[in-house]
Amino acid sequence: MEKDKKSIIIVEKEMGLTHKEFYHKISRLLENTTYLQIDNKIKFEIEGKKIDIILGKEDIRILSVSARLPMTRVKIVFYGFEQIGVDKFVRRFNLRFLKGGG
Asked: 10 Å Cβ neighbour count for 51?
């Protein structure tokens, strides 16, 4: 009999940053966690469970004729996590990537 596959939970976000900005800030999120970056994918483990962060292509969000902002779609794939663990990681992710207003 085949073992049940572990659950996969996917969280998708649109973030107002470039890939360069994302890679600059990822170390703040992962702190001492070892990760592997392959192209636009970052792979790592937390408490023995795997997470992949996949960056979509960079785009521009046009707010008005003179206001344009960078935009990148981000997919976070959780393998074997309960929803509470996903929520905890996403809260931390959001705090680390928070931009201050002016």
From this structure: 23
Nearest-angstrom CA–CA distance, 56 and 58: 7
Spatial separation of the C-alpha atoms in residues 20 and 96, rounded to whole Å: 15
Sign of CA dihedral 16, 20, 21, 24: positive
Per-residue DSSP letter, 27: H
pLDDT along the chain (102 residues), means of 10: 68 94 89 93 95 96 87 97 95 85 47
The count of residues in the chain is 102
What does the DSSP 8-state code read for residue 5?
P
What distance in Å separates the CA atoms of residue 60 and residue 58, rounded to the nearest whole number? 7
Quote the CA–CA distance of 75 and 52 in Å, as a whole number.
8
